[in-house]
Amino acid sequence: MTSSPVDEPAGRRIAAALWGLACGEAVGRAWGSPQAASGWPTTPPAGPAGLRVGPATRLVIALARAVAAGEGRVDPSPPVEVTAALAGSAPGPLDPALWAVVAGLINRPDDLQWLVEDGVALVQVVAGAAPVPPPAPAALAAAAAVAAAVSAAVAGEGPEAVLDRATEAAAAAVAVAGSAAGGEEPAAAVAHALDTLRLTLAGRGAGEPPGRLAAILRSRWEPGLEPSRAVPFALVLAAACGDAGRAIQEAAGAGLPGAASPGAAPVAPVLAALAGSVAGALAPASVPAAWTGALDELAQDMERLVPELARLR
Fold first, then answer.
1. What is the radius of gyration, based on Cα positions, of the chain?
2. What is the DSSP letter of 185?
3. Given Cys at both, which of 174, 206, 253, 285 links 41, Cβ 3.0 to 4.6 Å?
4. CB 85 within 8 A of CB 59
């Protein structure tokens, strides 16, 4: 009896990356009130039953379907399913990093230049159909970092190697993103932020008490709406936690507006989705079953989609 692509290591990691993304967004949306700076929010009053599939997840699933149908490519004019999913969402400055997860799922990490170009191109196609300004250079570099991190994690590389790949991709994306629309953040800031946050953690990992890793990273900066800060925050946190559930919880807490900035927009859903996707691919068994069970409307999509994505790698 032969195993299916879902049963293979890459297939399991692809599935866990998608489930981690979905659970991260759902948890980030459920925990919508300010929390203490510990980065470890309390359980939503409704528990896992209160989790719902979010609009960013629906868009990523639609994009993954389109990429699978196009044998790894997507037309400059996105399919109806993608534009319909865009119509039901309100993408923010961090959302392009979530779209880049799809590029990481279908590409191996060995050809860095191809991976970066594919991730940036995919983001630009989606952004072209979205009611948002074109992604700035830093947003494209952050997207490249996410694509590389997910790609390396799906390939079975360890946390430090995953961050190395992300940093290399962010640096390589500077040339690709140079012709993009301007912004206040330079593309090179993403690679610098990854290095800075890794030094800030100084090798600390899962042995730290719950909430401590996010608190240490927040001592350097708050993960706001700037891609060069928020995306590296999510990636470094995911690699350090060693567990998707913990990474999602810490990212969700860190991304909520606190007392110091009560009017700030919460970045918890995107931050937790990014952390969950990378941490899920690194440790597939660590995505909480209670959370995936609450989002079981995605199960059939996952069953059909994961083998198609695994085949493209």
1. 17
2. S
3. 253
4. yes
- Does residue 309 have a pLDDT over 50? yes
Q: Which domains does the chain have, with CATH numbers?
A: 9-177+190-312 (1.10.4080.10)
CA angle, residues 141, 187, 168, in degrees to nearest 5: 55
Cβ 239 vs Cβ 160: under 8 Å: yes
Nearest CA to 52 among 80, 28, 84, 69? 28
Structural tokens at position 74:
């997507």
Give the C-alpha separation, 55 to 293, whole Å.
18
Residue 129, classified by CB atoms within 10 Å of its CB into exposed (0-12), middle (13-18) or buried (19+), is: middle
pLDDT digits over 71-101, tens only?
A: 998 777 777 888 888 887 778 999 999 999 9
CB of 150 within 8 A of CB of 117? no
| C-alpha torsion sign, points 147, 149, 150, 155 | positive
- Report how far residue 106's alpha carbon sits from residue 112's, in angstroms, rounded to the nearest whole number: 13
What the block records as the tokens of 128 is: 């072209």
Q: Which of 106, 204, 180, 189 is nearest to 148 (CA)?
A: 106
CB 308, CB 15: distance < 8 Å: no
Question: 215-245, pLDDT tens digit by residue?
Answer: 999 999 999 999 999 999 999 999 999 999 9
What is the rounded distance in angstroms from the CA atom of residue 193 to the CA atom of residue 103? 22
DSSP 227: H
Among 254, 224, 243, CA closest to 288: 243
Judged against a pLDDT cut of 60, whether residue 42 lies above it is answered with no
Residue range 177-199, pLDDT digits in tens: 665 555 557 889 999 999 999 99
